[in-house]
Structure to design on (431 residues):
């Protein structure tokens, strides 16, 4: 049985390859939320929030930070780089947002240390042309270290033996960097450089699971902020071209310390077309060369990474993949973003299924070589060729835009409750 107040809680997940517009959706929902929780991933995320024309990109901090009443939690499933956290906090403080009194970091969250970033670079270089195209934020090597049961956690900072353990760990990991042919670190210099960042982190460390249990008992409203997207999930994404965490509801449970009974509504964020950044198969990828359709959508949609600035690969909406992500996560409703970017299209193809060797598939294959061979089956919908920019009422959307939304609902079987018509808070249709 769900808990009594879980009906007010919400989980926000990306249902594609990340960058669906989760930041904007979370910022909007956070207005009526007491606690916003990041549960997995790390500073590989780049969540954009635009308020009054001012853009803020959040990497580690939950996207609820701009609402002064929201308590922000970095849960145990997150891998946390002290330097990235300190820099992000300083940047926000410089723009007048000091959230140290309402931010908690789980004592069980694993630390991303300089050796992990060095290993990320080393593994990627060794893979050559088959590199994953990671964000080089040390994410994969930190989760490896976690699973190997050798890493340091935020809570270790509070123990007297932390300096000795840090030195020993950096030294051991440095041997690995050297053995793999990477550039070794100057361990003492790295330890010295870490000190101011660790000093920022230390007072924020807490038992966040206990905090969340108390918040649940007090009937507080919670928002769980997914990072990346379901197609980048370590188990169900396009392995090995994935991130190293569970990006769906499973990651929310293990990464927050709350049970499934507290999760509430699962909202999937879906961009009105598809993007992917980094390597890996992408059924229906459009021509990304200058002047190609993929390039045109990229430029119009401003599809350049919020974390790395890399150009994103673009394609039409892939509802075969989105439906798969909905099934995996019991998605209750969809937030469809960036509808306005399709305004100029006269006709809009939408992928409704995959075919492999002439056979229609009812799922997404596990093998990337099969995925690279699938043929998307498209249905072509008429465009609306009218501006939807800033539209905030359903009845003000052109009929063909309404039909596009209805088509998403028909193929996925999930209601679309929010539609994005621009980057700002106000450019949203709520149904
Ligand atoms: P996230 O990682 O899922 O939070 O998404 P990103 O922030 O990486 O990328 C989404 C981009 O689209 C950001 O630049 C947002 O400001 C922008 N955006 C979000 N929703 C909309 C929308 O409905 N229309 C337009 N034009 N831009 C949007
Ligand atoms: P948000 O939360 C888009 C991608 C990387 C790479 C792969 C592995 O903003 O949606 P990693 O550094 O995690 O080991 O990289 O995952 N990736 C993302 N792509 N949005 C993200 O986050 C991403 N986080 C990681 O580009 O292909
Ligand atoms: Mg992003």
């Amino acid at each position: 049985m769900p808990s009594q107040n879980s009906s007010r809680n919400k989980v926000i997940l990306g249902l594609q390859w990340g960058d669906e517009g989760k930041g904007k959706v979370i910022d909007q929902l956070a207005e009526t939320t007491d606690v916003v929780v990041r549960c997995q991933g790390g500073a590989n995320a780049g969540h954009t929030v635009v308020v009054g024309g001012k853009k803020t990109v959040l990497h580690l901090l939950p996207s609820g930070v701009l609402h002064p009443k929201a308590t922000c939690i970095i849960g145990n499933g997150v891998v946390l780089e002290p330097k990235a956290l300190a820099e992000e906090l300083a940047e926000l403080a410089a723009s007048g947002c000091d959230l140290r009194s309402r931010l908690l970091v789980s004592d069980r969250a694993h630390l991303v240390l300089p050796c992990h970033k060095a290993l990320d670079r080393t593994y990627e270089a060794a893979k050559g042309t088959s590199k994953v195209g990671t964000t080089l934020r040390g994410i994969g090597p930190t989760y490896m270290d976690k699973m190997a049961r050798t890493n340091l956690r935020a809570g270790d900072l509070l123990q007297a033996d932390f300096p000795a353990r840090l030195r020993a760990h950096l030294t051991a990991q440095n041997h690995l960097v050297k053995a793999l042919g990477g550039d070794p670190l100057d361990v003492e210099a790295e330890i010295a450089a870490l000190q101011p960042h660790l000093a920022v982190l230390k007072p924020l460390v807490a038992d966040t699971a206990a905090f969340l249990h108390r918040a649940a008992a007090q009937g507080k409203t919670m928002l769980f902020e997914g990072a990346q997207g379901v197609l980048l999930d370590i188990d169900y994404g396009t392995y090995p071209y994935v991130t190293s965490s569970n990006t769906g509801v499973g990651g929310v449970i293990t990464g927050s310390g709350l049970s499934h009974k507290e999760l509430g509504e699962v909202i999937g964020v879906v961009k009105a077309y598809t993007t992917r950044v980094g390597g890996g198969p992408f059924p229906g990828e459009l021509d990304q060369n200058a002047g190609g359709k993929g390039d045109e959508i990229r430029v119009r949609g401003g599809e350049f990474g919020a974390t790395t600035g890399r150009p994103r690969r673009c394609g039409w909406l892939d509802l075969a993949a989105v439906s798969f992500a909905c099934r995996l996560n019991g998605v209750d409703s969809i937030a469809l973003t960036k509808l306005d970017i399709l305004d100029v299209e006269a006709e809009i193809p939408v992928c409704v299924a995959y075919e492999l060797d002439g056979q229609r598939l009812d799922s997404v294959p596990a093998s990337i070589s099969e995925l690279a061979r699938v043929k998307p089956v498209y249905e072509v919908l008429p465009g609306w060729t009218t501006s939807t920019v800033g539209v905030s009422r359903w009845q003000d959307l052109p009929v063909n835009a309404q039909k596009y939304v209805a088509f998403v609902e028909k193929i996925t079987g999930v209601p679309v409750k929010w539609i994005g018509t621009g980057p700002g808070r106000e450019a949203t249709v709520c149904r």
Remarks:
- Residues 14, 17-19, 44-47, 132-135, 137, 139-140, 227-229, 232, 243-244, 277-278, 306 surround 6-O-phosphoryl inosine monophosphate (ligand 2) (CB under 6 Å).
- The domain at 270-430 is CATH 3.90.170.10 (Adenylosuccinate Synthetase; Chain A, domain 3).
